[in-house]
Amino acid sequence: MTTAERISAEAEARGEARGRAEPLIEQLIMKFGAVPAAVAARIRAGSMDQLREWIRRVLTVDTIDEVFA
Q1: Residue 31 to residue 58: CA distance in whole angstroms
Q2: pTM surpassing 0.85?
Q3: Which domain holds residue 35?
Q4: Are residues 42 and 48 in contact, defined by beta-carbon separation less than 8 angstroms?
Q5: What is the per-residue pLDDT across 38-50, written as a single tens digit (0 to 9) for each?
Q6: At the top level of its lineage, which domain of life is listed (predicted)?
Q7: Exposure class string for 29-52: b at 16+ Cβ within 10 A, else e
């Protein structure tokens, strides 16, 4: 893989993660109310695997902390 291909793949992965982070934040707002800035930052910095897991959890948890447990 060339450097350009690697950079392009990394940018694509970051874009995909961002595309999942914002809807998750919106779901958290709808379910729990205001989302602390630190939580939003953690979500935006999360890996695709983390985001997938958090997205699954938001449907079944009772507190925002449980999303990240």
Answers
A1: 8
A2: no
A3: 3-67
A4: no
A5: 999 999 999 999 9
A6: Bacteria
A7: eeebeebeeebbeebeebeeebbe
